[in-house]
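Following up on my earlier thread - several people asked me to post the actual chain instead of describing it. Fair enough. Here it is, all 427 residues.
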Amino acid sequence: MTDLYDRHKAVLPDWLALYYERPMELTHGEGRHVWAADGRKYLDFFGGILTTMTAHALPEVTKAVSEQAGRIVHSSTLYLNRPMVELAERIAALSGIPDARVFFTTSGTEANDAALLLATAHRRSNQILAMRNSYHGRSFTTVGITGNQSWSPTSLSPLQTLYVHGGGRGRGPYAELSDAGFTAACVADLRDMLGQSRGGVAALIAEPIQGVGGFTSPPDGLYAAFREVLDEHGILWISDEVQTGWGRTGEHFWGWQAHAQNGPPDILTFAKGIGNGMAIGGVVARAEVMNSLDANSISTFGGSPVTMAAGLANLAYLLEHDLQGNARRVGGLLIERLRAICAQLPVVREVRGRGLMIGVELVEPGTDRPNPRAAAAVLEAARAGGLLIGKGGGHDTSVLRIAPPLSLTVAEAEEGAAILDRALRSA
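Reply from S.P.:
Thanks for posting it. Predicted structure:
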């Protein structure tokens, strides 16, 4: 592994993040488990950053990929593509957006980039509302709207970004308010900001649950309340569902559905889990918005026959096996188990989340100060115990991110919770 790590450092960028003091190579996986190059088996509670959504080496997906690769691997969007049309039909129907059109990309970054292009072109404005503590990708435009300095390496941007309160309930100037008071204060802040902006704002982009930001979320209904204000100004709502989509939260298929009182978003972006590891992202939008571009465009690799075949098989498995329901049931058990474990641990500030999207925020005991040292130590201790988890958070990366494949069993949830219990006590 030292040899591979040395080779990695010799040819890849210094800013390419790696987990662990001794980075590991994963060689294969099955179900909810992966194996490292040294032969050790791990229970996977992070799924390649929420991307292995159903299971590692899911037979239905690997079979679909193999069969499609045996026919044709690539054609581009310049030709009719049956798997792409079929997957677009299914996603359009599931999206909740009326008269929906779907455009496929190869990543969530590219999906959000395309959504920003659509919104700014449709509204003829380069002004974007984004949430504090947000993360939307690593392209020039998405970095420019990311409200998390750890993941935003430049202040240069083609967009003018205005940051809004409300993405996280537990910190910030309104944290001590009731849910209703919090929502009212954030709506008032939004109105005040729009009163100061020049010209028409194009869109608000928001993650229903902030991913890299540490699995934080507002009270249910906040974005519905925002929607009333946005509609007064003709501003579009983009829901970034790259991490919250496909039933991961258990209670809803899409994160926006916790804020559905005033209808669906104008634009929805997705990626990660739909491909179960294959490179799929995409944008869903009302036809009026999607068709507003007045120049030709293509996608060389978006909508690839192989990745579309994988997406179709993966989505079918997800729906047929009610993995959203499993995320709700098993995720509910896991979060309650973790809350019981953490209740007496002064290093833990909060256990939060929904379904199989759970965050554990760590602080310096007796204070409210973030504790990135403890987060790094728990990450290492969990690995030593045979469990892989993630970390994030807008406050110095002090949140453990727990997001297993949606097929997680009760026994595996208990096993992972027990390992985390020991890891947290060693921090």
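The longest strand covers residues 348-354. That should answer part of your original question.
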